[in-house]
Specification:
Blueprint (H helix, E strand, L loop, with lengths): L1 H18 L12 H17 L1 E2 L18 E2 L10 E2 H6 L8 H13 L6 E2 L5 E2 L7 E2 L6 E2 L22 H17 L8 E2 L2 E2 H9 L12 E2 L18 E2 L1 H20 L3 H22 L18 H9 L5 H16 L4 E2 L2 E2 L29 E2 L3 H9 L3 H17 L14 E2 L5 E2 L5 H10 L6
Antiparallel strand pairs: 1-2, 3-6, 4-5, 6-7, 8-9, 10-11, 12-13, 14-15, 15-16
Helix pairs in contact: 1-2, 4-5, 5-6, 5-7, 7-8, 9-10, 9-11, 10-11, 11-12, 11-13
């Protein structure tokens, strides 16, 4: 509680400065009042997501025996473990302390696969793989979604190799820690005989990719989940979303090696990033400006990839504007969002009447197969703002208004921020962290053109 009180005090100071700036309401994607609401709610949710040493959050999962604070994907009893992806995606809020960052970075590195091995269910865990999530009781790495069991992990429906995004999120964890603390020496730390900087490079090279363009790729026989927020989908071929994450990780590695005065490595990773940047629109963009999720199974126009590519400045100006205008029109027509939350796929782009994605373990309009998520709202607002700032403001306001209406602090029957929901009544996992943390970080980067 002390951490959240300190965070809220800092927020009050920053919000006062925000409200006294020279910008006008017309220049901001959200009002100072709405930013204040979102920042306080985000700090509260992140604090409720902390698992303190010795704490138990769910039956059958034991207590936190790591000796450190862990951050799980949300409050209450959902997802009772340390998930690398959700944590890394929430760092840019600035609400994770330096000590917490350092400890969770080291834990992630210490559980990196130290050999290549095959699970009892026939899945392959390659040397250097980063865990999908880590148990708090015995610090056991679980490299696959769908289970908390170290022995039973790696069943076919969740891929034959670990998800591809976590390796790149590991890079971001180190990058953000160094960026915010200036502690470049952490890269030299020896973790089970391997320096952290070497572990980052090893992890970066785990996901299979094209030999020339460095685009992440997979096949039916060696399938890995492209991104954990759609781990119940089967998506194959060249993969867009993890390639975007790889582009970002390559840029971050280049910056880290620049701090280490290693121009050879700087050039190497910048070249990789540039190759990915050039390849993404060539491989994935359709005639409307939307990026498809892949070139194989599940090769459907992907809202999340399209918005994130703009957010990371991957697309050319011409492509960016075309994608922005199309997303704006889809929003106006009611095909993109519901109460400010975003679908993976436009309602007009569903695979057929029975499913949004081509292959899904979830029923249509539930979870990752057609429900609406707050996590990408900031990226979508950022993308739309490039050509229609007023619509971006409207979308952001709808998102905030729903959070206010369903704020979990109103009572036990309320649960916002939810992981996802649908107008049919489907709701999943209240007090979900990235529903707030990702939009909050993105809103801060939106400026009126």
């Amino acid at each position: 509680m002390k951490k959240v009180i300190t965070a809220l005090f800092s927020l009050a100071i920053s919000i006062l400065a925000y409200g006294q700036s020279n910008t006008t309401q017309k220049d901001l994607v959200l009002s100072a009042r709405d930013i204040q609401f979102l920042e306080i709610l985000t700090a509260t949710i992140i604090d409720s997501s902390r698992i303190y040493p010795g704490q138990k959050v769910a039956d059958g999962m034991g207590t936190n025996n790591t000796g450190m604070v862990l951050v799980k994907p949300g409050g209450r009893g959902s997802y009772p473990a340390f998930w690398i992806r959700d944590y890394a995606m929430s760092l840019d809020t600035g609400f994770i302390t330096e000590e917490e960052q350092r400890n969770m970075l080291r834990l992630t590195a210490a559980t990196q696969a130290d050999r290549t091995w095959i699970t009892k269910n026939g899945a392959l865990i390659p040397f250097g793989a980063i865990a999908d999530h880590i148990r708090m009781d015995e610090s056991l790495p679980i490299y696959f979604p769908g289970t908390y069991s170290f022995e039973e992990q790696g069943t076919p429906e969740f891929g034959r190799t670990p998800p591809y995004g976590d390796q790149f999120f590991f890079v971001h964890m180190a990058y953000y820690y160094i960026k915010t603390t200036g502690d470049i020496s952490v890269l030299e730390q020896d973790i089970h005989g391997i320096r952290l900087i070497d572990r980052l490079e090893i992890a970066f090279n785990v996901p299979p990719s094209g030999l020339v363009n460095h685009i992440v790729t997979t096949t039916d026989h060696f399938r890995g989940i492209d991104f954990g927020f759609r781990d119940v989908m089967t998506i194959t071929g060249n993969l867009c979303y993890p390639s975007i994450l790889k582009f970002k990780a390559a840029m971050e590695l280049a910056e880290l090696f620049e701090k280490r005065n290693n121009p050879v490595k700087v050039e190497k990773y910048r070249l990789i990033a540039n190759n990915i940047k050039e390849a993404i629109p060539q491989l994935f963009m359709d005639e409307r400006g939307m990026l498809k999720a892949s070139t194989g199974k599940g090769n459907q126009a992907d809202v999340w990839s399209s918005a994130l590519a703009i957010y990371y400045n991957i697309l050319s100006r011409e492509d960016m504007e075309r994608t922005s205008r199309f997303l704006a029109k889809a929003y106006e027509n009611g095909h993109l969002s519901y109460k400010g939350n975003i679908r993976h796929i436009l309602t007009t782009d569903d695979f057929d009447e029975s499913t949004a994605w081509e292959f899904s373990l979830a029923q249509k309009n539930t979870y990752q197969n057609g429900a609406y998520w707050g996590t990408p709202t900031g990226w979508v607002c950022y993308a739309i703002a490039k050509t229609n700032f007023k619509l971006a403001q409207q979308l952001a306001k709808e998102y905030i208004d729903d959070l206010r209406q369903n704020d979990f602090r109103k009572g036990p029957e309320y649960g916002a921020p939810y992981e996802c929901f649908h107008p049919s009544g489907h709701k999943q996992n209240p007090l979900y962290m990235t529903t707030l943390s990702c939009p909050l970080a993105a809103f801060g980067n939106i400026v009126k053109p």
